[in-house]
Known about the structure:
- It is a single chain.
- This protein is mainly alpha-helical.
- 52% of the residues lie in helices and 0% in strands.
- The protein has helices at residues 7-16, 41-56, 63-76, 79-109, 123-129.
- Helix 2 (41-56) packs across helix 3 (63-76) and helix 2 crosses helix 4 (79-109).
- Mean pLDDT is 78; it is low at 113-119.
Amino acid sequence: MKGGKSKTDTKGDARLAVKKGAPKKGKPAKDPNKPKRPPSAFFVFMEDFRVQYKQKHPNNKSVATVGKAGGEKWKSMSDAEKTPYVQKAEKRKADYEKNMTAYNKKLAGGPEEEPEDESDKSKSEVNDEDDGDDSGEVIEPDRGSVPHMFN
């Protein structure tokens, strides 16, 4: 049949259908206070190389070109030429480890900023009392005539 769907065509469509299942669990939120990992010797080198490359090629806007040129230069360098970058990277790694131990101690010790004499009420309960509405009645939102799943 020309132009019509065959049974094999409909089977292919079923495989392309989106599966509806339980939503995937996302990653836990990152702590903004956690120290960043230190750069490797190559990335320390790239910090200097980007500045030099930009001076030589001021019209270049391509990040990929700079990365490729930096990678080629790094591969062509001897171990003696890489030594200052390796030393800087090791120093940054030592600083990172000190910061991480301090960070982990702070986490293990718990939050020190919260005062201990607070009542057992949560902040939302305390804020609800401060609204000025002391009638005590619960006000539910107007749902209108639209049917909802959670009535």
